[in-house]
Design goal:
Length: about 325
Amino acid sequence: MPANLTPQYLAADRAYRQAKTPQEKIAALEEMYATIPKHKGTEKMQADIKHRLAKTRAAADQAHSKTGVDVFHVEKSGAGQVVLVGTPNSGKSALLAATTKARVNVAPYPFATHAPVPGMMPYEDIQIQLVDLPPVTSDGIVPGMTGTVRAADAALICIDLSAADALEQVETCLGQLEKRGMVPAGREAPEGGRDMPMILVGTKLDLPGAAEALGALGGLYGGALPIIGTSAETGQGLQDLAAQCFRMLGVVRVYSKEPGKPADMKQPFILQRGSTVLDFASEIHRDMAKQLKRARIWGSEKYDGQPVHRDHVIEDKDVIELHV
């Protein structure tokens, strides 16, 4: 029997996957249960929602009873989590404020950031989470910060282009990350380490000498890292930065469509590049994947409503109609 999931249910499901706190997850699960069609075809889904709701409530109660808090843990949100790594006064906080409108302490003195500060950067119809972190120095990294970087999906290495030591800033940041097993994507990571997507972001491009420094860094690191110049003051490069972050995350946007109805183009599902139609069905609900019989797709280089198999690889901005 078809599940015939309503737009309200799908919206609540997306809210659940994007929820940052147990309270937000509980609210989304309650909305999912309230809006899911009640018939035999959704009995397993209803039971699964109730199980997740009970589990989330229990975890929330347990967390509330604990006093210990990890100040460096940042719950992931949006299409991906990208951390900002840089030396003191590298312009990280100003970049975060300019791209996300997050409230940050932008100051002309070093170490103004003491703990992670998240913000959401818009890119077309999605949001990418940026997280400002305490500065890196030649002496090391703030205790607790290593796990935050390692857990992120990607990193922006922020460099003050107006400073005389721009090259040393790059070496300091990459060197401290490498000591902790993290290297740019494409390089071989040490055993137990990780190669992660990184972009070299030059800040303060509006200041004298910055453009020349950006060119010099491009000559030195252009073959190893994507490089982009930005200015939080003028906005130069910020749109390109958002686009590069999206490409770096390696994800695609997929839009759901109910049979006989227009596609929901407001809130896409986010999947890893290379995902299939079956992966998309699993993203909605695992029972949907089990019951999937066929699918139709709309997108680039396809005719409208083209039938596709379960293992068809999804492309960015595809619209998919599932039949169970």
